[in-house]
Amino acid sequence: MNVDDAIRQRISVRAFKPNPVPEQTVREILDVARFAPSGGNLQPWKVIAVAGAERDTVSALAQANLPGAEDDKPVYPANLWEPYRSRRFKVGEDMYALLGIGRDNRPARLMHLAQNFQFFGAPVGLFFVIDKGMGHGQWAHLGMFMQSVALAAMERGVHSCMQEAWARMRAPLAAHFALPETEMIYCGMALGYADMAKPVNMLRSDRANVDEFATFRGF
Known about the structure:
There is one protein chain. The chain is α+β, with helices and mostly antiparallel strands. It has a domain of about 150 residues: NADH Oxidase, CATH 3.40.109. About 40% of the residues lie in helices and about 15% in strands. The chain has a four-stranded antiparallel β-sheet, with helices on both faces. α2 packs across α6. It is globular and about 50 Å long. The two termini are about 30 Å apart. The model has no long low-confidence stretch (mean pLDDT about 95).
C-alpha cells in the first residue's frame, strides 16, 4: 500500500471484529510511527496500550463514570461556527442514517456514543499521553504521531478509530494509570480489524476540495 492509498482509505472504523491484534504487531506499528516529525525532536508523546483484561477494566471504569466531564481542554470550541458546525452536523447525521437511528431517538444515539468506551469492539485500545506543560505546537506534533500510527496500522491491515470521546474520562483514567500530576491523556484510539459487514463502516465523510482551503501564490 502506498502513502496516497493509505491516506485515502483510512476511515474511523466504528465496528470491529473480535480477532486479537498481537502485541508484536502493535509494537511494529509504534516502531514506525515514532519517526513522526516533532519540532526540536521533542517527541512529546507517550502511549498506553491496553488489551485483554486491562482493556475490559478500562471500559468498565468508563462505564462507571459516564457521562464524564469536559475539562479546560474540550474537544470542540463552544458555539462552533460555520463552516465547521455544518460539517460536524452532517457527518453525525450521515452516520446515524447508516445506523438507522432517527434524530428523535436520543436514547439510541447515546447508546451508540457509549460504544466509544468499548472501543467499538476493537481488541486493542491506545491512549495518547502528553505533558500538561506542552504548548499548542506539541499538541500538533502529537496529532502527527497519531496519524502516523493510523497509517502504519493500515499498512498491516489493521484499522483504527481516533477517539476524542475519551477526553471526558481524563480524570478517572489518570488515576487508574497512576499518571503523574504533570501528564494528561489527550485521547484514545481503537485498534483492530474492521467488520465491513456493519453498515456504520460504510460511512465516508465529505472533504472540502483543495480550492476551498488552499490559496496558491507565486506559481
